[in-house]
Amino acid sequence: MTRYVMIADLNRCVGCQTCTAACKHTNDTAPGVMWRKVIDVEWGEYPDVERLFMPVGCQHCADPPCMHVCPSTATGQREDGIVTIDYDLCIGCSYCVVACPYQARYKVDKPHFAYGDTPMESEEIRFDEKRIGVAQKCTFCSDRIDAGVEKGLTPGIDPDATPGCVNACIADALSFGDIEDENSNVSELLAENSWFQMHEELGTETGFYYLYDQEPPEETESE
Amino acid sequence: MNRFYTVLQTCWDWRAAANFMFGGTGSALMLMIAIASYPETPPLLLGLTALAFIGLGLFMVWLEIGRPWRFIHTYFHPQTSWMTREASAAILLFPIAFVGIVFKIPAMITLAGLLGLLFLYCQARILLASKGIPAWREPTILPLIISTGLVEGTALLLLSLLILDSIQGWALYLLLALLAVRIQSWNKYRKQLTAGKASKQTLSVLSSIHTSTIWLGNVLPLILVAISLMVPSLTVMLVCIASILAVLSGWYMKFTIITRAAQYQGYSLGKLKRGRPTIKPPVRRKPDRFVF
User: Fold this and answer.
1) pLDDT single digits (tens) B5-56
2) Does some domain include residue B275?
3) Sequence-distant (≥ 6) Cβ neighbours of residue A207 within 8 angstroms
4) B135 domain residue, yes or no
5) Could A103 and B285 be called an inter-chain contact, meaning their C-beta atoms sit closer than 8 Å?
């Protein structure tokens, strides 16, 4: 079987947001909607301070709370672990938005564009009415993966079968691949490095791993 | 615990809160009506009042959903979704209660009362299943939401009985007991959130309503009802004030928990591990099943 996961190497990420821009370009998301984004994390007190950049988004959980709560079955899960949303089924109740512990879901109630109500030519061409009033989130660029696999390409290795954010990363901090293949790029990265999964205590079994080589802070809270 | 970007959720606003406020009150009122009228049937207006509260709550939440004309899709996922189960309880409750009240069928009123309790339970489970909001997924929210609904339903029943001039003593004792349970549930909820290190904003918001919730919304009504039991000549006035306070404080508490104390989980760094992880396969590789 195949289980696609993404890896973000926090030792490498420089916080440039190229992945954010690439995601927006690939998926044509509305202003304010970021299926992939990088948060800037700081902790400690001067002079003993630390800072890192952390790519976040849908973690494509093996046991996704968003799917269980969805009343319409719009949120589903593929055999390869990618969590999907059927825009034709979703009622836009936002229950999945509050059930997701990773703040990965968005809902856009009215069309709006980069320069207000009037879309640019590219926005007009790519505007998808189906996404209005329903939940939306990162798809791991499943359409690219499917098209690539159909051509015999390997997701995570061949750019045409790999999510846009991973292709765009300038620091080689993002990786993608099949974790059930012991010889895949992601399996090797996890075997050779220290890693963590976000909010592991919630039992969601994320499909998103973070490589990091320092112990995290004990007590930190920031907005 | 390290935690970053614990912002307030804004997807569920006053309209969603209204469902918990009015729906909780109406469903508990339905239960109390069934108990109060057993083995007969309640007055038409009283039964319709309970249904109107539930209907108002559901209408409010209908106004909030992004694709309101797809509301029928709400019924597609009873296997695991408490929202589907809540909607299913409601769709059964309305015709059963209506037929029971209009045609005076006691068995249907009893069934409607049980469905009201189920509706209230589903509401509490809806919040409990919201894993992204620590203030909602806290297990002690279950007794809190249920007890406040029952307090509101009993208080409204007492108000109705006052209007009908047929007050029943047991309802006064029940309100006393439920108020005590609500105080206990609220205190335990806050204590657990503090122990579980909920976000500072959540704790701050809950602290800001603590005094009014406890004293004005629970202790004062409790005292007023207790006095009314000892001084029957003051019963009408005291029970009236106590009931209104008990209902309004319950609504205010739920409104605050839904709209102001609902900070997201936030992001965090986890405990570091080494070696190839143990892989849990996606749950959908197994057939869907009922999960409680």
Assistant:
1) 999 999 999 999 999 999 999 999 999 999 999 998 889 999 999 999 999 9
2) no
3) A3, A4, A5, A6, A59, A60, A61, A62, A81, A82, A179
4) yes
5) no
